[in-house]
Design brief:
By secondary structure, the chain is an all-alpha fold. It has 6 helices and no strands. The chain is globular.
Length: 92
């Protein structure tokens, strides 16, 4: 039902189809991100670790990252800022 509603909204607004992030994409991106020290630092923080593992909003954000662009420093910085923002907001 949720997917139908999202697709209906995208048709009405003439935007591209809105897709949901799968658990497989989330897990894959977490594996890729663990290669980078900044993400491992977040994972060492117990509060952030719990959010990364259990919070649906945080996980969907991570799953929405483009893993093929992680090798670019600018893209990593962008992802890090987004992740930091949501982690701080959720932690408070």
């Amino acid at each position: 039902m949720k997917k139908f509603a999202l697709n209906l909204i995208s048709l009405i607004t003439s935007s591209p189809l809105i897709t949901e992030v799968t658990e497989q994409e989330i897990v894959q991106n977490i594996r890729h991100l663990k290669k980078y020290q900044w993400f491992r630092d977040y994972f060492l923080n117990e509060t952030y670790r719990k959010l990364i593992i259990h919070d649906q909003d945080v996980r969907e954000l991570i799953g929405g990252f483009n893993s093929k662009s992680f090798h670019k420093d600018t893209y990593q910085e962008k992802c890090q800022k987004k992740l930091q923002r949501i982690l701080q907001r959720k932690a408070n």
